[in-house]
Amino acid sequence: MSQKTESKPQGGQRGKGAPTYGGGRPDAKGGDRPRRPRREPEEEVWVPKTILGQKVASGEISSLEEIIELGLRIQEAGIIKKLLPDLKSEVVDVGIIQKMTSNGQSTRFKAIVATGNENGYLGIGQGKSKQMRIAIEKATNAAYLNVNPIKMGCGSWECRCDQKHSVPFKVKGKGGSVTIEIIPAPRGLGLVAGGKIKRLLELAGLKDAWTTAKGSTPTMNSTSKAILDCLRQTFSQG
Question: What is the mean pLDDT of the chain?
Fold first, then answer.
């Protein structure tokens, strides 16, 4: 009498009768493992820790300009996130800091992050850490704390319109060895500036401007401080 022999699938090969579960990875028995659902990052609930934070959370203070007029100091990034929920963060520059110590060479990372809503607000912060991720997080938190309002307008004698597309007057700022000057430009010209300087002005909300820069502009630490110094003057002097 002849005996029937059945062949079993080898390794990860799937047999005809093997169950499938949504196209996951094959297991040792020949089936597919079900994929785990992807977890979405949960948003942290902001709990105010300062008196200013409690006033913002309760609605007593509803604008950043009101905080500046009262001369209060912002110590929580959650205050800015509450007042300006449409802010965007962008990494401007990253680098490595190496230092010789008695224990050997020490290496840390530094990051510069800019945040703005492209409509009259800009902040720039710097962070350092042994891990790049933590350095970016520190820089982002510092950028939120340094957000400043910017007064926009049309200060060009060639345009003389009533739209807010440029700076209202010529401003000049300094950071380290870098000196930057922003000059009002007519509507439609665009931003006449370098790559990273142009991106910072776009985050601030400027659409048309001439710029002149002196000093070591590739040093983004000094360049970003000079740009922020320029744009602060539009609010303080205006």
Answer: 84
Query: Does the pLDDT at position 195 exceed 60?
Result: yes
Helix count and strand count (H, E) for the chain? 6, 8
Question: What tokens were used for 85?
Answer: 């929920």
Q: Tell how far CA 78 is from the center of its chain.
A: 15
CA–CA separation, 164 and 175 (whole Å)? 26
Residue range(s) defining the domain that contains residue 216? 171-237
Pick from 126, 166, 119, 168: nearest CA to 145: 126
Render pLDDT for 4-30 as a digit per residue (tens, 0 to 9): 555 555 544 554 554 544 455 555 555
Q: Is the pTM of this model over 0.85?
A: no
The SS3 assignment for 123 reads strand
Query: Residue 181 sits in a domain of what CATH number?
Result: 3.30.230.10
